[in-house]
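INFO batch 0412 | record 1 of 1 | parsing
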Amino acid sequence: MVWTLLGIFLGGMALNLTPCVYPLIPITVSYFGGRSSKGKGRTLAHGLCYVGGLALTNSSLGVAAALTGGLMGAMLQNPLVLAAVAVVLLAFASSMFGFWEFRLPQGLTQAASKSYTGYFGSIFMGITLGVVAAPCIGPFVLGLLTWVAGMGNPYVGFLVFFTLSLGLGVPLFLLALFSGKLDKLPRSGEWMIWVRKLMGWVLVGMAAYFIRPVLTKIVGDIVLAAVALGAGLHLCWIDRTRANFKAFEWMQTAAGIAGLVTATFLAGSLILAGPGAIWHPYSDQLLKEAAARKKPVIIDFSAVWCAPCRELDEITFRDPEIVKRSKQNFILIKVDLTRKGNPVHARLLKQFDIRGVPTVVFIDPYGKERRDLRLVDFMPPGPFLVRMTEISRFFTTNPPN
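INFO prediction complete | emitting tokens
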């Protein structure tokens, strides 16, 4: 989540460089600069009001989207819905690439363009930035809303969009405090179209993320690698955009290298990945068999649309030591909750009090769950091995009466 939030913050900063937002920078800075005669403290207060208004709008959207999570999470179990979401994201991406223009009703845009005095004026500017700049930031924000709705966590929704607001607002806030540096900013130009294309590739990556659960792991990784490779090649070498400041060349090079490194990493993970742990579908007979053989059981409740579940499968459950121990000393059971309607799964959810996925349950050889070992999120191989050792040690030091 830390890396995700950092990426969203940088994405918010990048949105400041799009053709809809960048020309607003001198207007915004001059607005705050006009209050500098009343002291830096007053300018600071107006800047905080501006960022606060921006955060209020975006964070409210994030929370509202996340509160639909129960409905959205259920819908995202349907491959047709996942495909539809991916198509919508690709349509928005095509807008960022310049194939069509995202526009709001003219009346709404005019209402958002009004100006007011005092601190309320600063708050109003922040609230309405998203409306005024909608043609450029709208597709990216809508794509992010879809992703947040899929997670269904209002706290995460607030945090994601608050972070996005900081990325959008903090650079303008700092420029307002140091308005004398405004003349050192690059001039508006063709390079801002390149930034829009960069955000378009981000939306293409989000579309690949949503469609991935429908595909096999290998095909999903190949699609993600292809997107990263295409983005790097296009943004750095194929696109002919030029600018009259040196930093732009560094931006192009960084985007190209990031794309190539990501594609190489994904391709390498496919080649180097070893065999994973062997899982069995749930059956009551399997639990009786485990008790008869005095073997502890690990039950993994997961779903293909669950990102932490995929991390467990691709990282933790492919660790050589975990694979070896599970084969020798454990029975592994996988309960796939991707599709609803299975009565056996419904019984297990109630029996084990499963609130979400992933949930990994550890059962000792006597059929009792070690609730203290229960796992409800991704865990790297090292700590997971500690849990496996703990249930094995408990079994040997606490024999049945």
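INFO post-check: The chain has two domains: 2-189, 280-397.
INFO record closed
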